Structures
1.
Amino acid sequence: MKYKLVPYSNGDYSLGNKLAICYVVNSLDFVSDCYKVDITESLEGVSIELGVKIKSGLLIEDRNFIANSIKQYLMNYFDGVSNVTTHITQD
């Protein structure tokens, strides 16, 4: 079952939606922190932009794989997500 991110009547997304996204991302083994979540909506769907700190010991060279993994995870978890942009830093 997919979950839906629901905006307020003015189109802004609540802190609860942003916390839900961080909760999901933080559940991934290689993530140490999710922060600075921005959610926007367009005709194509919902776009998510977020910062993610990966655990030390992981190669920062793997950031494309990590970013794609996070993108696919969020797109499978939340209904209507069309794009995810992940900014990765190392813990």
Note: Strands lie at 3-4, 31-42, 45-54, 78-79, 81-90.
2.
Amino acid sequence: MPTITLPARCDRAATEALLPEMVAGLGSGVLHINARDCTQIGQAMLQLLISARRTGDGAVIDPSDALRETARQLGLEAELFDGTARIGVGA
């Protein structure tokens, strides 16, 4: 399972920098995303994480408390952390 580690600050610049790595990783089976050090997360990264969960074999996200709380506040917990790698149409 390929692994990508997110930086502490997951803003638009971090999203753009990680996009090619995520695209490549999603073509190699379930992607593991280590987000344990994430302290700030922006909309662009949230959209990328949701897309990763829905693409190919999907992704498993290991979240920080900050990421989990942001997802909870936005109603995205099930979308990002429901325990399955893929949540999408036909999944």
Note: Strands lie at 3-5, 9-10, 31-35, 40-41, 59-63.
3.
Amino acid sequence: MAETADDRLRLLIERIERLEEEKKGIGDDIKDVYSEGKAVGYDVKIMRQIIRIRKMKPDDRREMEAILELYKAALGID
């Protein structure tokens, strides 16, 4: 029984290691796409912000934008 548990643990660890390698590769690919965007004149910081906004639910995005406008008005920005 212990041998089976040890084998299972080893397989799980190896699987996690493979996935971590894939994740690193995907991260490198994403970085390359941002670099490509920068090379053609896009602002990478804004691109990252757009990605973050697009992940949000519409209601959450509207709430965030409303609060941002409220804070900006309170600070006299714009």
Note: The helical segments are 2-39, 44-55, 58-75.
4.
Amino acid sequence: MKPLNYAILKHFTKVKEACADDVIEALKGEYGHYKALKKPAVIEAIMTGEANGLLEETRFDLDEKGELRVYYRAHEEGAATINSYIPD
């Protein structure tokens, strides 16, 4: 099993785009028992990936509760870097 932050980054190589809620939903089967699989920690991991040039913001909207959702994607170079360091 990969470290959670690796699994978060790796998720972006398998989808067109995702927000923190999407990542949590996708990973909860395998990582649901991790205390760090909470929205603030997932957002921090995603923003770290963005700061390191692996992910980029694609769009944003409001969820049904009126909270901001920011979507990200792994661009071609970012996905290649993620895949080179984090194997399947």
Note: The chain has a mean pLDDT of 96.
